[in-house]
Design a protein that fits this description.
A two-stranded antiparallel sheet has the order 1-2. It has 4 helices and 2 strands. It has 2 domains: 35 residues; 67 residues. Helices cover 76% and strands 4% of the residues. It has 112 residues and is mostly helical.
Amino acid sequence: MITGGIDSSKIEAMLAQLKATAASAQGLDNSVQTATAPKTGFADALKSSLDHVNQAQQQAQQLGQSFATGDDKVSLSDTMIAMQKANISLQETVQVRDKLVAAYTSIMNMQV
């Protein structure tokens, strides 16, 4: 049925698709969730994050060295942007570490 230039069957199909997506995001559709996304643990996520920060630091250092030696392919703006990204990544990592230490301390101080 077409109402006002919009086919209502397409709207209903879109709503059904949105509901299915919302259900799988909430974990209600376990068969889809386990088939598409492998389970990753906290340690894996932490290691991946630290590897990303390390990679950003190394890339910034390489760009800085290339710029300092006079490489024409490396611009000052690219070097500064890479250094700022690496700095922000490191600051974020330190803040997450501080939050984890604070959470651990508060859990250890809980009375059972």
